[in-house]
Each structure stands twice: as C-alpha cells, then as structure tokens.
Amino acid sequence: MLSGKTVLVGITGGIAAYKICELIRMYKRANAQVLVVCTPNALNFVTKLTLQNLSKNNVAVDEFEVKDFNPEHISYADRADIMVIAPATANTISKIASGVCDNLLTSIACAFTKPIIIAPAMNCNMWENPVIQENLNKLHCEILEPESGYLACGYEGKGRLCSLDKIFDKTVEILKYKPLNGKKIVITSGGTIEDIDPVRYISNYSSGKMGLALADTAKNFGADVTLITTKDVSRTYNVIKVKSALDMKSTVEKEFDNADCIIMAAAVADYRVKEISSRKMKKTEDDEITLTLVKNPDILKDLCGRKKNSKPLIIGFCAESENLIENAKEKISKKGCDYLIANDISRTDIGFGSDYNEVTILDKNGGMKKLERADKKTIARKIFEEIYG
Ligand code: PMT
Is 316 in the pocket of ligand 1 (CB under 6 A)? Predict the structure, then answer.
C-alpha cells in the first residue's frame, strides 16, 4: 500500500512509545521505507536496538552526530514523504508550536514542508490544559486526538494514544489520496477590516479558521495553495495578508488567471467608510455622530462575471442567520458561482469563531448536499471530496 513512500516516525518520551514498535511494523508490512527519529526521553521507554531492527534503518537521536556532509535535520525532512509524531507529548507539541528546535525531532518538524500527523498522548489534565490546546491549534498538522480511558498515570480520562489503525489509515489516506494534485487553489479567509480613522475600524467576528482549514486540507491533497487572509498565518504554502475588501479584491484578481479554483471563505464587509479620517476622530459635545458608508465591490460576483470558460471553479460561502437554504439558493443565482457553501451563523456551536461547522453545499444546477456538524478540518476535507472526489 505504501510502496515507494518514506514515512518518518518521530517518537517522544511518553509511555505509549512502546506501541510505536507495532506501528513501524505496520508501515513495513505496507512496504514503506521507515525512518525513525527519537527524542532523548523516548529512549527511556523503548530501545534504539528494537526500533532499528523493526525499521531496518538507523535510529536518529543526536542532532550533531555527523554521518555525511548533509545537516541531519534537513536531510531527514527532504527524504520523507510524511512525518508521523506518535506519541507526541505536551512538551514536544508546545516546542513545535513555538518553533523551538532543541533536539533533532523538533528541528526536523520545523524544517518539514510535507504533511505531518501528530498523535498526542498524555495525562488527561495536561490534555485539557488551555495552553496545550492553544499550542495544538497553532499547528498546521493533522492532529489525531487521544482517546478516553484508563491512563498509565492512574487517571481515567482523555489522553490515551489513538489506535494504531487510525494513525496508519490516516497516513495512507494522506499519502495516497491526492485529488488536488497539480491544481492551483486560491482561498480567502478572515474578516476584512475597514478603517474609520488610525485607531478604529469596522470588521466582523470571522476568525479565519474555516478558510485556514480549507487551505491546509488543499495542501495535504496535493494542491498548490495561495491563502489570502486578514489574519496572521504562517504556513509553508503561499500566504498573502490583506486588510480591507478593496485589498482583498485586487489580490484575488491577480491570482485569477492562474487559478484552477477560487474559494471565497472570507467574511467581506459589504460597506466601507466613505472618507477615512487621517487623524483620530475627536469626541464632540454631540450625542450622535454619523459615519457615511459606501458599498464595497462584491468580489465573488465580479470574479464570476469575469469567468469565460470552465476555469477557475468558483466557490462562495453564504453566511445566514435565518432561512439558510432559501437565501443560499437566491445567493448562488445572484452571484453566479459554481458552488455555494451555506452555514448558519446564528448558531454559537458552529460558524464564526468556532472550531466546528455544519454546511450545505449547493451547486449551480440545483443540487444540494448537507455535511453534518464536524470540526472545520473534517468539513474542509468533505467539501473537497464532494467537489473533486
Ligand atoms: O472565519 P471563521 O470564524 O472560521 O468563520 C467562517 C465563516 C462563517 C466566516 C465562513 O464559513 C463564511 O460563511 N464565510 C462567508 C461570509 C460571508 O461574507 O458571507 P456572505 O453571505 O455575506 O457573502 C457571500 C459570499 O460573497 C462569500 O463567499 C463572501 O466571501 C462573498 N462576498 C461578500 C461580500 C462582498 N462584498 N464580496 C464578496 O466577495
């Protein structure tokens, strides 16, 4: 199943490290070439000799062990098609999230531009610690959440390494399933910012998570990705930061001719302030002030109007707080896009700012498909599977 593929297994210092011996065997049985890198603490739980015998390769631990003239971390990052860090401790997750490179494993992770799977395992209180959750959210990796049950530390809760089958299946899925290979996908995300004066602006609650999940998934599916976002994002693919709707429009338009697909997940302001004050507006004695707003261009509609043949495929999002499907049907015909992905933004458990979403995909021929509530990465994957699968 994995012939011709190289899997780099990264093992960190947790009790579940012993289970990874079996995972290595699973990769070997599937004909993968397996490279192993351990943190020094991982070797407290599993021996180098065991890992070497199973992987049929040297096990790397020391960053400064010179074997040839290639820096070890770059050479590993170049040779592997995927990196699988399992078990991933809270310590290693936090280091990778902060760009700390104090051992070979974290240095490789930092230099790795291909997909990374992270399978955390730790005490349940550590897993629930908001700092660890925040660090996990920073990672642009496929996170396989731990399972609940009895933990080696004596606690009962969420923290056990997920099943090896799950890690193996995800590896195969990422390595094999490349429905976007060779496609250039442009995605917008985040809420546009319309200045009022140097200190104030009009914006909205878009966190950029939906667009980011789409961009990360497109990258994993083999696409050449450009993310145009109002948020600070650091990724190995092309990220262009923009601010206002006008900025976003001119940036997307530059990408139009080369794009195979444009996805407008951004929440674009329909109006902007007519005259931006160059100085901070002073408080006056009046109880009211009036800001005059002017209409922003409709980027999505203009892109659709520019399209002469089947390329690029244009996908819009539709944020509604009532009559979702009815309004979405009207919007897809008004805007003229190929697909419109409707989400209900009146719900607090999905949509704006949430890690979850529930959407209905409408196509221009009247077709409809509902994707039940799931995390935004799963929703992103299912959207691409529906459209390109
Ligand atoms: O960022 P998150 O916190 O993860 O939240 C995700 C989301 C709710 C923002 C996202 O899923 C979403 O619904 N994005 C579209 C928001 C929006 O602007 O919807 P709309 O129905 O107002 O606009 C319809 C489409 O036209 C959108 O694709 C929008 O990008 C586009 N548009 C809107 C106005 C405008 N002037 N130009 C546009 O191109």
Answer: yes
Domain CATH for 213: 3.40.50.10300
- Domain range holding 293? 184-276+288-388
Q: Which two tokens stand for residue 160?
A: 């056990």
Q: 384 with 271, same domain? A: yes
| pTM assigned to the model | 0.79
Q: Percent of the chain beyond pLDDT 70?
A: 97
296 lines ligand 1 (CB under 6 A): yes
Burial degree of 241 (CB within 10 A; 0-12, 13-18, 19+): middle
Cβ of 147 less than 6 Å from ligand 1:
no
pLDDT tens digit sequence for 132-187: 999 998 888 999 999 998 888 888 899 999 999 999 999 998 998 888 999 999 99
Q: Is the C-beta atom of 213 inside 6 A of ligand 1?
A: no
> d(Cα 235, Cα 81) in Å, to the nearest integer?
17
The Å distance, Cα 81 to ligand 1 centre, comes to 34
| Structural domain count of the chain | 2
Residue nearest to atom 17 of ligand 1 (CA): 267
Beta-carbon contacts of residue 239 (< 8 Å; ≥ 6 apart): 226, 227, 229, 233
Cβ of 103 less than 6 Å from ligand 1: no
Whole-angstrom Cα distance, residue 261 to residue 249? 16
Task: Look at residues 150, 176, 202 and tell me which one is the last residue of a structural domain.
Answer: 176
Using left for φ > 0, alpha for ψ between -120 and 50, and beta otherwise, residue 113 falls in alpha
Partners of 362 in beta bridges: 340, 368
Flag whether 131 is in a domain: yes
Rounded to an integer, what distance in angstroms lies between the CA atom of residue 366 and that of residue 88?
45
Q: Whose CA is nearest to atom 27 of ligand 1?
A: 317
Q: Is residue 282 part of a domain?
A: no
Cα 202 from Cα 195, distance rounded (Å): 6
| Dihedral over alpha carbons 367, 352, 347, 315 (to 10 degrees) | -10
- CA-closest residue to ligand 1 atom 10: 265
* Residue 153 is a catalytic residue: yes
Atom index in ligand 1 nearest the CA of residue 209 equals 4
Cα separation, 185 vs 2, whole angstroms = 27
Ligand 1 pocket, residue 267 CB under 6 Å: yes
Pocket probe mutation, ligand 1, options 317, 326, 350, max atoms within 8 Å of Cβ = 317
